[in-house]
Amino acid sequence: MKTVGVIPARYGSTRFPGKPLADINGKTMVERVYQQACLASNIDEVIVATDDNRIKVVVRDFGGKVVMTDPELPSGTDRVYQAIKDQPADVIVNLQGDEPFVKPGLLENLVNVFENKQIRIATPVCRILSEAEYKNPNIVKVVRDANGFALYFSRSQIPFFREAKEVEQDLKESKICFKHIGIYAYRKDCLEKLTQLNESRLELTEKLEQLRFLENGYRIYTILTDYNSISVDTPEDLEEINRMILNNEL
Q1: What pLDDT digit, counting tens, does each position of 149-165 carry?
Q2: Which residue of 76, 86, 126, 242 has the fewest C-beta atoms within 10 A of its own C-beta?
Q3: Cα–Cα dist 93/115, whole Å
């Protein structure tokens, strides 16, 4: 089973232009993500998919593999597929370019679930234990069925505790509240079909692309992890991460 990791890296970003090239303690963010992915023992190849020559130059300078993609592509999923569509692969891992500390072990576990032939799409989740995360609309929540497949993703508080006690106590005792970590793995033929789907009503409502998959009948398997993502979405996030590195908090 050949597995390829793809890091979609656009230069343009509303909140943080040039984010893939942001400096994190002497290395660009895209290099850190690339290096972490290369440490996963069952990912055979890692590729950066970009639409910008500045990112292409940086990736080549640190010895990475990079593919130029159409700047007009509508989503990271489309960018990932365009980067690998003409090469042999069985499983594709879509790595977020703003997760510079993603754990190689998490990526390995994600790939391993494809030993089950019934799984077409997989993504990691971790438990939500704090009220702040539970109520934050920027943190995507997910509820799962008894077999680990996603029932729904939302920016809202799901599941909702109708007979609430203390929220954090409910979160700890219930063990049913999960945060979505935005890394995906797909079988290549499934990924091709996903890129042919139109935007869905639920996707447009919540601004969550994975709802397009669910609304069209695709099942998304979730793996539980202790890794709580540390993403860089804004210049303020970058400052905080560099501060944490300097203070040996990472």
Answers
A1: 999 999 999 999 988 77
A2: 86
A3: 15
List pLDDT tens digits, range 68-97.
999 988 888 999 999 999 999 999 999 988
As a whole number of angstroms, the distance between CA 111 and CA 87 comes to: 18
Residue type, 215: E
The identity of residue 21, as a single letter, is: L
Provide the whole-model pTM.
0.93
In degrees to the nearest 10, what's the CA dihedral of 238, 239, 244, 247? 150
Q: Is 56 strand, coil or helix?
A: helix
Q: CA-to-CA distance for 186 and 47, rounded, in angstroms?
A: 16
CA distances from 170 to 13, 194, 237 (A): 37, 36, 29
For residue 207, give the amino acid letter. Answer: K
Apex 30 CA angle, 27 and 36, nearest 5: 85
> CB-based contacts of 30: which residues, under 8 Å, 6+ apart?
7, 9, 20, 21, 48, 55, 58, 59, 64, 97
Pair 102, 202: CB distance under 8 Å: no
